[in-house]
Amino acid sequence: MFKNLARASVSTLAAILAFATPALHAQAPSAPPKPPLKVAFVYVSPIGEAGWTFQHEQGRLAMQKALGDRVVSTVVESVAEGADSERVIRDLAVQGNRLIFATSFGYLEPTLRVAADFPFVAFEHAGGYKTAPNVNTYNARYYEARYLAGLLAGKTSKSGIAGYVAGFPVPEVVQGINAFAIGMREANPNAQVRVLWLNTWFDPAREREAAQALIDQGADVLTNHSGSPAVPQTAQASFRSKGVRAIAYQSDMRAFAPDAQLAAVTLHWGGYYTQVARAVLNRTWKPRPVWGGMKDGLVQLGAIDPSLPAPVRALVDTRREAIVAGSVRPFDAPLVDNEGRTRLAQGTLDDGAIATMNWFVRGVVGSVPKP
After folding, report:
1. CATH T-level fold of 142-266+299-365
2. pLDDT tens, residue by residue, 280-318
3. Structural domain boundaries of the chain?
4. Is 23 helix (H, G, I), strand (E, B) or coil?
5. Quick one: DSSP state of residue 68?
6. What is the rounded distance in angstroms from the CA atom of residue 239 to the CA atom of residue 36?
7. Is 5-141+269-296 a domain of CATH 3.40.50.1100?
């Protein structure tokens, strides 16, 4: 999620094309560690009770539980991207951590610099596009669950307008907005998805202000690509007066929007973190970029409101099964952008085109600022 806007250009295409579903093989850096393996996690925001960092923390805890005394793990919270992150990552390597997870996009260059000085440490970076002999990248196809969320929004919204609070205009965020709009317009061909950019990932006050502005523009379903529960909380505050609903992102946010939440796009890192740590212990780790989806369990649409009509829930389940089976892809043709240009007449977008997406589909009200 947490990506530095200046890094998100189409020049990264060749590196991104190497993404694959989760797999770890071959040799690890030499001088393998002996148990317990020291594992460190670097977080860009407080862990909190929900959100991006919270989900990574749940993944760490699942890894720790699965591997027991074979690993010992530590975390550093609220590490700013840039110089601070390089200092923290370097300190963790000096302290003897042999596996380090850097969970924010802006940590990529600092991680690469530190990795060059610590060849016996394995580094895993969330969402990056560069690797090194001891640096791997991993990410999830969040857009798959976003498509289902849009379908649910289209079946639920009375105004036909959804509001989308977005952090930075990097491809990962654009993918989610487009997939959401495609799903919503499948249910309601006249639906609109209105986007407001934050130019930050974690700022509850600004997230709340953007959400309220979208409600004022007629949105009765809200979703977001930002780091706090502020957007679902704003929907909850307007639920009784305006019927506003929310589709949460990253975590199940029913604790913050018990009436307003329709569903939640949730992220699940425990299996992957366990797999990576086990591979380092077994000397089978190597940098092989990972881009897993719903079939890999990295992202799901869950916590669906049980009071929704059964046909709506059945439709979402059917589409979910089709995505996992590969018979439905959110970015199948025809794809027309919001300026009326045909972007894809037949077939489906390949991973390279998806990974460098910098345009909006028809139905999205807004534009993608240039980096």
Report:
1. Rossmann fold (3.40.50)
2. 999 999 999 999 999 999 999 999 999 999 999 999 999
3. 5-141+269-296, 142-266+299-365
4. coil
5. G
6. 49
7. no
